[in-house]
Amino acid sequence: MEILTWTYILVGISFALYIGIAIWSRAGSTQEFYVAGGGVSPLANGMATAADWMSAASFISMAGIISFSGYDGSVYLMGWTGGYVLLALLLAPYLRKFGKFTVPDFVGDRYYSNTAKVVAVICALFISFTYVAGQMRGVGIVFSRYLEVPIEWGVVIGMCIVLFYAVLGGMKGITYTQVAQYCVLIFAYMVPAIFISMQLTGNPVPQLGLGGSVADGTPLLDKLDGVLGELGFAAYTSGRKSITDMFMITLALMVGTAGLPHVIVRFFTVPRVKDARLSAGYALVFIAILYTTAPAIAAFGMYNAIESTSEKKISELPAWISTWQKTGLIAVDDKNDDGKVQYLADPTANELSIDRDIMVLASPEIAQLPNWVVGLVAAGGMAAALSTAAGLLLVISTSVSRDLFKTFRPDISDKKELRIARIAAAGAVILAGYFGVNPPGFVAEVVAFAFGLAAASFFPVIIMGIFSSRINKEGAISGMLTGLIFTLGYIVYFKFISPELNSAEHWWFGVSPEGIGSIGMILNFIVCVTVSKFTPAPPQAVQDMVQEIRIPRGAGKAQDH
């Protein structure tokens, strides 16, 4: 069967499964809509958390970045993995014991202020919209290639699917849908990785194949370094970014993880604190399967892409080039009219332009794998993008209905609150779709901005809210606003206002927009501590509550406060 036929079959089956689960598990109360009733098993929650975590940035874009950036792309791998460990060990159990459904909920109670809560809602909305824009972009890329529709229509189709099961099922529907999506995406990621590893190195384990040798006996990475060197590129295994920027990006991705609202809320869907820790452990194992495979997929993809295109006559280019050209994500320009394609580091002579977001999706076609594998990867890419998009949309709807509307209208009925949450989710889908069609960068870059905003706004007030009883509402509000405004302003300036200055010689302290969240976080800490020092201490009841959070007892079931 043709690729398109396999894609329709596999994507259709997976979508039918997701929608069926959403109907079966539709939310009937706000507690089911927000935290799935607090009754999800640790194993199921671990899978759902992994699916929530492994977005389009992880599935589609991370290996693509590593393919084109080599060693420099490892910051995403290190930052996102280390960040999840930080979240699981340092924050999740305490936040779960606190018993609130959302980060603004926690901020509002811990800092005894509706103003602080509203500021936290604003931060959550900025983070979530930035993050979901990357997911919708990923959805559009997948649909535009495999369903042969323009990327704009790909985004619209994805919007409709997400809207259906996120609005209908809430967290309950999303949780069980994400369990299915994890199974689909991990299978879709590993199958081609195993195939290609066998082709290139004879080893069926991609992680080991990365350190293996190609047919002529040369180690794969040495061969890749040599091929790239001949084309004028830096060696695949060498770094080009400064150590400072590498450190700052990694730090921003790590601590940004700890402030991501859609991941934190996952730890409220299980019955006990013990289950929150256990589900975090399960999720880490499930995440590691993909994350340890990504460097292998990246190296395999880059090697195969160069081998199949460099110095080939245009008439002899493989079929995958013309297929992806239709999406606008690959461009061929014979600048010297010699009828051949040159892939070179010199942009004035380079005749082949490949969007880095397509590397994982195109790898099966580049390696000439069976058509069903190509269709499977399409289903996996959609599962990854849609699972995270759904979680983010729930955070947006919850922030509007629970953290904003109910804060000022506490007497609102359960039914009306649920209706407002669904309306907010619908509005969020439409706005996310716009940013999916008009993204500020490639998928992982957009997601990195979301992590930077989370690092600069939420991480300091969450960490100090748990481990310091002296930080007060004035400090928290000042710190969040400082971190958010500084980081957002820096990103907007270099990405939108003056993109021509977006280079190392113009960055402040040599830190790129992807890593500036680390500086924003430091400013947040400084402002938060300084302002708290010169303003009254929190009430004694709040200080006692902070001490109680860290005592490992009294871990009952989540309550709807």
Automatic annotation (TrEMBL):
The keyword Transport applies. One of its GO terms (cellular component) is plasma membrane. The keyword Transmembrane helix applies. Pfam families: SSF. InterPro entries: Na/Glc_symporter_sf, Na/solute_symporter, Na/solute_symporter_CS, Na/solute_symporter_VC_2705, Sodium:Solute_Symporter. GO terms for biological process: carboxylic acid transport. Coiled coil: none annotated. The chain crosses the membrane at residues 6-24, 77-95, 116-133, 153-170, 182-200, 246-268, 280-303, 372-397, 418-436, 442-463, 475-496, 516-535. One of its GO terms (molecular function) is transmembrane transporter activity. It is found in: Membrane. Keywords: Cell membrane, Membrane, Transmembrane, Transmembrane helix, Transport. It is a multi-pass membrane protein. Belongs to the sodium:solute symporter (SSF) (TC 2.A.21) family. This is Cation/acetate symporter. It comes from Algoriphagus chordae.
